[in-house]
Amino acid sequence: MTRGYTGKVLHIDLGSGKSRVEELDMNDARMFMGGKGLGAKLLWDLTEKGTDPLDPRNPLMFVTGPLNGLTVPTSGRYCVVSKSPLTGIFNDSHCGGYFGPEIKRAGYDVLVITGKAPVPSYIFIKDDEVTIEDASGLWGKTTFETVDILRKKYDNDSLRMATIGPAGENLVKYAMINIDTYDQKERGGQAGRGGAGAVMGSKNLKAVMVKGTGKVEPADPEGFKDASKEAFRITREDDFIPNRTRYGTPIWINPMSEYGILPTRNFQHATFADAEDISGETMRDEIVERDVSCYGCPIRCGKHSVVKKGEHAGTELEGPEYELLALLGSNCMMGDLGAISKASYLVDELGLDGISTGNVLGWAMECFERDIITKDDTEGLEPRFGEPGPYIELIRKIAYREGIGDLLAEGVKRASEILGKNSSDFAIHSKGMEFPGYEPRGSPGMGLAYATSDRGACHQRAWTVGAELEMEKRFAPDGRARLVKETQDERAAAFSLVMCDFVPFGVDSFVKLFNSATGFDLTEEEYLRTGERIWNLIRIYNVREGISRKDDSLPKRMYEPLPDGPTKGNAFTEEMFRDMLDEYYSLRGWNTNGIPTKAKLKELGFPGMPEVMELAE
Prior knowledge:
With 617 residues, the chain is an alpha+beta fold. The protein folds into 3 domains: 8-211, 4-Layer Sandwich (Aldehyde Ferredoxin Oxidoreductase,  A, domain 1); 241-427, Aldehyde Ferredoxin Oxidoreductase Protein, subunit A, domain 2, CATH 1.10.569.10; 444-503 and 523-615, Orthogonal Bundle (Aldehyde Ferredoxin Oxidoreductase Protein, subunit A, domain 3), CATH 1.10.599.
């Protein structure tokens, strides 16, 4: 065993009810690290071209990183990797909390789950003991009910588990996996994006429960102690961390509205008149009870909140986070913090990705406004912008695929294709993944980042907003391609360690932590090259599944000028976007159709993977 890794991959076949342990290929660990990268390599190895995401053969993988379970800020992160039922391509959904370190303590780097159980089931992993239990009595329960029932059954409040709700059972294309439950001291989490919950539901799998008693050790204890101590010092002394701790991600609501980047009214506008009412500052004053943290993290950006007044008084939740305030809030013209909190609680309880849900609801409201959807389609509901009653009810309908909810459960791309009537013109997605909470006409780098993201529209692959706000030519395309490419490579490496977006580390800190944890000897250049290698492997996987230049695109609305606010008049033009994409492909060493060249893949060390090389140009 190389320290930092357990050296074990646990395979569980729900169809046969059998499990086996394989040794982790340490060459893969060196080439792809863990988390995102290792998950991508395993997905490539384990799936064939055209595998349906809901086919039993599509693996559902919980992938840890070499820092999981060690004493370092944000070392609780891990990811869920699978082929996405929402997009049909690669998906990695990252999550915090305590589940990842528990997998490592149980003795595994990766859990690989395939097959379909004959009856609803849950998996219980206790170190080297793996059992598959009947979950028929849990089917139909919410995520939180499932956690409570299983913890009571085993009389253990510290059991860590991943669960799905009705949305996952009903194969909603953007169903998420919920991790643990809300706690007044510890963070739960959600593997939200891309529909991993639907993959879990397609396997008749209600929950994965883990209890580990082992200990995770670094390869170089003294070196790691020094690197970790330095990491905590950097975090403690960073100027922005106090605001992260006090307000969490909602600190961005007011600035994004002021800068004209906050999605509003289904991305028709970028400034929200009621932004202050749903801001981090207002949250802190009105609903936040205490700060909560993930495993080993001093930042404590999680907010345990309780709504104290209004129709939704008594709603208790973790959050809402910035993305839900943006998508379930301003994007739906919802300025009622209580209603947003209720909606945020429901998506977690029922097992829905809140970003996609808010985007889908905004699209449905605009369809209703345009008479494309009528009360006859919604069983009398009137989903209007800013009206909380129908908005709350639609979330339930989506999770249970009731009435109009069955259409909305497909995501905006499929729903708009099914509905027709030009509704695709304002279906806000890239590659089938709904946009998150940053309006790219006020931040053109985000437009390129959304279009080229490896899992569809995503703000985490390259969050360019902060850098662009400091640029002299904020709205020009100059330099955006390089910014996006270099950020994607760096984040691919960080998400393979696996680390959180919020740690204020440079590459030097990441490399010291990785090398002292594993005993490897990567240079900073090799570390960044690893991120680039991971990005290219995922691109080749997506090319195999049919992705090309035509899919690296933006919705029609992004070519329409914003009508008001500080970004008034801003829009992409076809020439502007084409030039940005051409420059991006050139920087990546891809051809003009977005396919990696053989020369680039050879440079990145892929000759040992002939199937990869065969797809290159």
